[in-house]
Write a structure and sequence with these properties.
about 250 residues, globular, 8 helices, Rossmann fold, alpha/beta, three-stranded antiparallel beta sheet, seven-stranded parallel beta sheet, 10 strands
């Protein structure tokens, strides 16, 4: 894993977007298409704003998969990740194909199986992700399942994760935050040829430190990124503040 620390989250988002754009452009040039995974949340604001502003990406030649979604939330809900992705990415650049998670599907397990079949036929060129305050990747809260081979799984959300969603302003009360979600699995994320991980803000500092400096463990889910040779972690000074400066500057 390669780590880059920028001064501000705006600089972080710009640098991460430039790296992502190079991967997409080069992949399309080599293969004629590129397949990517898109994440949501506050951590992706600056990244997606910059990425969708880069004119040289041939978006119609891309295919997008969705990282995670709450169970039971309609697309019209302000916290819906489908709504987020349509407003901040899909409706701006119009990828050639889009596979969204239907979180309000009548049977979440069947929805996972539907997506499993589609994604199993694709090679993921790059995944755009973040790290949660509890160290999660996607909605794989600790202790995360490092072993399942299933691409998409139904997961329970722990209280720390749910409180983060409340704190970011997506819900009015903790009771409104769903207790379950459909998430891309850890192994599926790690199958991506490249991973761009953007993690701004000091509230993520402890999670970043745990994931980089503690033992690789399901109790620090994002620590698994250290095993990926083409994972690129972008931090700002807030999220990097607890790290040993000489090692990560």
């Amino acid at each position: 894993m390669k780590i880059k620390v920028l001064e501000t989250k705006q600089e972080m988002g710009k640098a991460a977007a430039e790296k992502a754009a190079r991967i997409l452009i080069n992949t399309i040039r080599e293969k004629g298409e590129a397949v990517f995974v898109a994440a949501t949340g506050v951590s992706q604001f600056e990244f997606l704003e910059n990425l969708t502003s880069i004119p040289s990406i041939d978006w119609p030649k891309t295919t997008m998969f969705h990282l995670d979604e709450y169970i039971g939330i309609p697309e019209t809900h302000q916290a819906s990740f489908r709504k987020y992705l349509k407003e901040r990415l899909i409706d701006k650049v119009h990828p050639g194909a889009v596979y969204l998670i239907k979180g309000d599907a009548e049977d979440p397990e069947s929805e996972c199986k539907r997506l499993d079949k589609i994604i199993s036929e694709k090679e993921i060129d790059v995944a755009f992700i973040g790290i949660g305050e509890n160290g999660h990747l996607a909605f794989n809260d600790p202790p995360a399942d490092f072993n399942t081979e299933r691409p998409y799984i139904v997961v329970a959300l722990d209280e720390a994760c749910r409180r983060q969603q409340l704190g970011e302003g997506w819900f009015k009360s903790l009771n409104e935050v769903p207790c379950g979600a459909i998430s891309m699995s850890i192994r599926q994320i790690m199958k991506s040829k490249n991973i761009i991980c953007t993690v701004p803000d000091s509230r993520k500092a402890q999670a970043v430190k745990d994931c980089l400096e503690s033992k690789i463990s399901p109790y620090h889910p994002a620590s698994i990124l250290r095993k990926h040779k083409n994972a690129f972690l972008f931090l700002d000074r807030g999220s990097a503040k607890l790290l040993e400066r000489r090692q990560y500057a």
